[in-house]
Amino acid sequence: MGNRLSRIYTRTGDDGSTGLGDGTRVPKDSPRVEAYGTVDETNSAVGVVLSSLALPPRITQCLTDIQHDLFDLGGELCIPGHVMIKAAQIERLEKELDGFNEELPPLKEFILPGGGQAAAACHLARAICRRAERRCWSLARVESVSPEALKYLNRLSDLLFVIARVLARGAAGEVVWRRTNPP
Questions:
Q1: One CATH from 3.90.930.60, 3.10.20.90, 1.20.1200.10, 3.40.50.10860 for 25-102+109-169
Q2: What is the pLDDT of residues 9-64, one digit of tens each?
Q3: Are 62 and 96 in contact (CB under 8 A)?
Q4: Average pLDDT rounded to a whole number, residues 3-7
Q5: Which pLDDT band, with edges at 50, 70 and 90, does 2 fall under?
Q6: Cα(42)–Cα(136) distance, integer angstroms
Q7: Which of 42, 112, 146, 178 is the most buried (most CB within 10 A)?
Q8: How far is the C-alpha of 110 from the C-alpha of 127, rounded, in Å?
Q9: What phi-psi label fits residue 114: left (phi over 0), alpha (psi between -120 and 50 degrees) or beta?
């Protein structure tokens, strides 16, 4: 499996550029780097959720699978034209989403991000995932991005919302938003 870094710093990025997976040098703030960087942030945020104590095994397995997918997605985005996210991964997310959502009462009001430490961390992961999706759409406006990558992030943010609801109901409970200044 390719070369591994034996040294973490290379000094090649000191000029504000970074290397893509195909060796191309691009600015560190290019849309492609923004896209895969925010996918990496999403993966890290999912890791924070996974570090929570006493997660149900079903959620732990689901989030671990997602971390592997996000690593694949980051790899896909850092190599222009490379595709790793497949329809089957999106279908798996949809199946998980439907399964977790079945256990929940219908949502009639907006809820505040929170509901315990694990649920709050999952809401943060959802918000970062939404940003990753926006960054990928920005990239897709100027370069090719696979439709599956974009769909994956859209489904993932929905799934993270539902998992946050499941976790909140098992902890502090959901807090319903109340309008500060009703009309």
A1: 1.20.1200.10
A2: 777 667 788 888 888 998 788 999 999 999 999 999 999 999 988 899 999 999 99
A3: yes
A4: 65
A5: low
A6: 13
A7: 42
A8: 15
A9: left
Residue carrying the six token digits 């997310």 = 93
Look up residue 111 and give its two tokens: 């809820």
The length of the chain in residues reads: 183
Helix (H) or strand (E) holding 76: helix 57-78
DSSP E strands, the chain: 17-19, 25-27
Q: Look up tokens 């222009």; give the residue.
A: 80
Cα 59 to the center of its chain, rounded Å: 15
Q: Torsions phi, psi of 18, nearest 5?
A: -145, 160
Average pLDDT over residues 121-144: 98
